[in-house]
Amino acid sequence: MALALGDLIAELGGELHGDPAAVVRGLAPLESATSADLSFLSNPRYRAQLRDSQAACVIVAPALLDEACARGPAIAVADPYLYFARVTQLWKRKVLGLGMVPGVHPSAVVHPDAVVDPTAAIGPLCVVERGARIGAGTELKSRVTVSERCVIGERCILHPGVVIGADGFGLAPHEGAWEKIEQLGAVRIGNDVEIGANTCIDRGALADTVIEDGVKLDNLIQIGHNVRIGRHTALAGCAGVAGSTTIGAHCTIGGRAGLVGHISIADHVHISAATVVTRSITKPGHYTGVFPLDDHAAWEKNAATLKQLHALRDRLKALEKNRP
Amino acid sequence: MALALGDLIAELGGELHGDPAAVVRGLAPLESATSADLSFLSNPRYRAQLRDSQAACVIVAPALLDEACARGPAIAVADPYLYFARVTQLWKRKVLGLGMVPGVHPSAVVHPDAVVDPTAAIGPLCVVERGARIGAGTELKSRVTVSERCVIGERCILHPGVVIGADGFGLAPHEGAWEKIEQLGAVRIGNDVEIGANTCIDRGALADTVIEDGVKLDNLIQIGHNVRIGRHTALAGCAGVAGSTTIGAHCTIGGRAGLVGHISIADHVHISAATVVTRSITKPGHYTGVFPLDDHAAWEKNAATLKQLHALRDRLKALEKNRP
Amino acid sequence: MALALGDLIAELGGELHGDPAAVVRGLAPLESATSADLSFLSNPRYRAQLRDSQAACVIVAPALLDEACARGPAIAVADPYLYFARVTQLWKRKVLGLGMVPGVHPSAVVHPDAVVDPTAAIGPLCVVERGARIGAGTELKSRVTVSERCVIGERCILHPGVVIGADGFGLAPHEGAWEKIEQLGAVRIGNDVEIGANTCIDRGALADTVIEDGVKLDNLIQIGHNVRIGRHTALAGCAGVAGSTTIGAHCTIGGRAGLVGHISIADHVHISAATVVTRSITKPGHYTGVFPLDDHAAWEKNAATLKQLHALRDRLKALEKNRP
């Protein structure tokens, strides 16, 4: 469990200021790194931590190199956070020797009419239904369901408990009860998509639900039927997107955010955590709608007053009219 | 994969204006339908799409029949959306040849003391615990758990990952720690209930948690212990109902809405998406409580001011008093 | 299915006013108890129910003993709710004869390099991955995943669908796409922790995600990577905690509440249901931030005005300046 700094540089590039034969035995944040750990500084706000860090070596941007070298060994790279991401990948592969093992676990239930690429990995107790297709290099971790006719692209990761292709929530009211609208579409997922634990993506009613290349979904997310999510958009945990909504490319949707159905979100839109999006958004930007936290007693007063807000506005107007 | 319009009418009724021998090969929304597709118009707001649609045939209400016939073949029915729902059912059964296959999948784990109706279908990797009962015509899709002594009625559908009858969250505080209250009740689910993927319904503490006939639950919903949900009520994705709350019949609860515990909701109440219900509702109606979406900078200003709202009201009052 | 009151007292203590040979055949709340049921009154607010209850015997605090005895048999104890919790435990064990059965269910998939204590119970269709460790007396109900190298302490209960140790949501932006940060840490869970159905706890990026002793998590909760939750803190259903946030000991987090990442919450903090915590909280107390429920038409007016709130404040200020 060790990596020489020289070997790291040989694999990933970067400008080493220090002994290439020196080894690191772990990766750690600046504040907890020991003298055996490699660390990194990506946000200049935390530069105060640099001086005091015990890290064996620190990855920094060129602008902070002098500061880092005053402390000890350093690697200068244009984007320390990206470089660090690649170090974690290298570490997993080379130092820990971990990686995907292609093949279908004997406990998985794969329908004979499903197509699983021989380089894909289907983990323990997964279910792949009739007509489903799993692309090259894709990994279903454990207890994942991919329903009938759903298609997963290449190099995707589906974490435990994911459900792809359950029926969308389609109901027609009839004499006080609900008539089921059978969900005849499927789910199509592009390449390089990662889907977090227990996240659900429903199949379309007529056409398909579509997740484009490079989309990243965290845990416990709900994607309704006929949603389309554009390339490289990321949704944080517990987000939800109701049916027939379209999200553009390169968006970020914060944790617990919710989008109602049948709306359209432009590219490069950023939604804050826990915000509810009730209308289409046509312009890139950062949007928020969250009740501010307060101590409970203060909240009670303000919340009660909020229910009279429109009336307060009218009273203000009246005062303004009567202004001498 | 084709259906003659005449056969459709023979099965489902409706007034055909067009050639009964003409066949349709798919179902599609008006705007994307090709000349081989059957489509429908249920909301008069979208009548503009009717004229331009390429659909082979369109299902419409009698009031729009002339308009539809000016374009091509049409089927007139009193409720086009309901009719369309039945078309999807027919399509699944007759054209796609899909349907439930009764029996227990060999990978499912069914306790010898559970009772599964011979016409029920228990899918791959489901768990049915001791004393549980699964009614006639009910389908557990895959990876569903039905815990000890829980009862599922007839013609229900439980989607992948559903958990029926996990312990309710019952804890008594004791010297800074929590003492478990064993959950001795069960879950009773009526007939014609549909439960979405990864939704959880907890068992009752003493009495049972009850889901009445015809209730529809979307994905990732949490139903606490001793909740009762009345007939034909529908909850959209990510909704949550805390313990001992009662919801009446014929309600709709929007996605991500949350109800606190120990309250009671009347029949015919409609709760908007993401609304938090903190008190009982005794009158039918439409209720909402959501922070409105705004661009982030505007939200920041308004949210900060909101924390002074009660004080602003007092200042307004003072001005009113001093009015000349 | 019966328990003599004298046997109950012998096991759990308490002061019986009534015949020790009398038997109870069920446990029930005051309002629904039959003359065969044992009941309890923990909240003096419900004392009116005491008089009318049909219960065979009622557990009460000493202050209510006279009132209870005027009605019939009673057990006086210092903390009736705690006592009732212990009655449910006794009932489950002695009357229903239910309890954990140690061992690994034959349908579970346990990696040969995982360590499962012989007194632990691994239920049907669970997955325990390489290097994971399950402590003494811990129960995994059914369909639980414990991923590589995650450690579960003693006497824990993990309900169906729980996912421990899926990858945290770690991504570095790169040229419009996302580079994966491999999650090299694990999850460490202390003793006496209960985790609700379909709840997810992600593994840490570098260091571990930590759940301390006695923590109670309800269903469908999301715990991000590198979160730490202090001893005896309880989170209700659908709560979410984003990455690297620390919650102190003895906190309660209401259902659907959300905490953003990289913040710190002191001990003894109580967060109301559905509140979003966007900053650190350094003082014990009760905090809330929820949009108040209203009928939809009233909400619409107030929500629209809320978007002008800051401007209203400025207009109020202007009026105040011009006051004669």
UniProtKB/TrEMBL annotation, chains A, B, C:
It comes from Ramlibacter aurantiacus. The active site is at residue 225. Homotrimer. Pathway: Bacterial outer membrane biogenesis; LPS lipid A biosynthesis. Belongs to the transferase hexapeptide repeat family. LpxD subfamily. GO terms for molecular function: N-acyltransferase activity; UDP-3-O-[(3R)-3-hydroxyacyl]-glucosamine N-acyltransferase activity. It comes from the Bacteria. It catalyses: a UDP-3-O-[(3R)-3-hydroxyacyl]-alpha-D-glucosamine + a (3R)-hydroxyacyl-[ACP] = a UDP-2-N,3-O-bis[(3R)-3-hydroxyacyl]-alpha-D-glucosamine + holo-[ACP] + H(+). Its EC number is 2.3.1.191. PANTHER family: UDP-3-O-ACYLGLUCOSAMINE N-ACYLTRANSFERASE (PTHR43378), UDP-3-O-ACYLGLUCOSAMINE N-ACYLTRANSFERASE 1, MITOCHONDRIAL-RELATED (PTHR43378:SF2). Keywords: Acyltransferase, Lipid A biosynthesis, Lipid biosynthesis, Lipid metabolism, Repeat, Transferase. One of its GO terms (biological process) is lipid A biosynthetic process. Gene3D superfamilies: Hexapeptide repeat proteins (2.160.10.10), MurE/MurF, N-terminal domain (3.40.1390.10). GO terms for cellular component: membrane. The gene is lpxD. Residues 23-90 form the UDP-3-O-[3-hydroxymyristoyl] glucosamine N-acyltransferase non-repeat region domain. Catalyzes the N-acylation of UDP-3-O-acylglucosamine using 3-hydroxyacyl-ACP as the acyl donor. Is involved in the biosynthesis of lipid A, a phosphorylated glycolipid that anchors the lipopolysaccharide to the outer membrane of the cell. HAMAP family: LpxD. This is UDP-3-O-acylglucosamine N-acyltransferase.
